[in-house]
Structure formats: structure tokens, C-alpha cells
From TrEMBL:
It comes from the Archaea. This is Flagella cluster protein. The lineage of its organism: Archaea, Methanobacteriati, Methanobacteriota, Stenosarchaea group, Halobacteria.
Length: 80
């Protein structure tokens, strides 16, 4: 299993072969993990990935454990 590499930022295009885009707007993306990529925070496979460039976000109850990873430009919320 390949871990998402965020050392130099996060580029979704590097992982597009295994991530299915569920929704997208100007500053956010919601993706499904189809290749069992692993989380950069805990190194476990994740189910969904939310990527945002917005300075603030509000979330409901994700219903499962989650991890947060940050790059200079984005925040990644990964649900397991």
C-alpha cells in the first residue's frame, strides 16, 4: 500500500488513478480511496479524503475515526 506523500504539498493528480472524485468546488474536493492508499498521519488505509484550501470549515459527525494532515496550502481530513 502506498502512503499519500505530503512532504512537498499535496497534488491530487499524482493519485488520481486510485482516488475517485465525489464532489468539488472552487476550494474543496471530496474523494473516495479506491486503491487503499494509506494515511500520512497514521499509515492506515483511509476511506474518504476531504481536501480544502479554505481557512475555515464546518463538519458534521463523520461517523468514524479521522485524521488531519496539513500542507502549506491545504488541510486534508481523512476518514477511516
Amino acid at each position: 500500500m502506498e502512503q499519500l506523500d505530503i512532504a512537498d504539498g499535496f497534488d491530487v493528480h499524482e493519485y488520481r488513478h486510485g482516488l475517485k472524485l465525489l464532489s468539488e468546488d472552487r476550494q474543496t474536493m471530496h474523494l473516495e480511496n479506491r486503491e487503499e492508499f494509506t494515511c500520512p498521519a497514521c499509515d492506515e488505509p483511509f476511506e474518504r479524503l476531504f481536501v480544502t484550501e479554505k481557512p475555515t470549515n464546518t463538519f458534521g459527525n463523520p461517523g468514524s475515526p479521522f485524521c488531519i494532515a496539513r500542507t502549506d496550502e491545504t488541510v486534508l481530513l481523512l476518514t477511516h
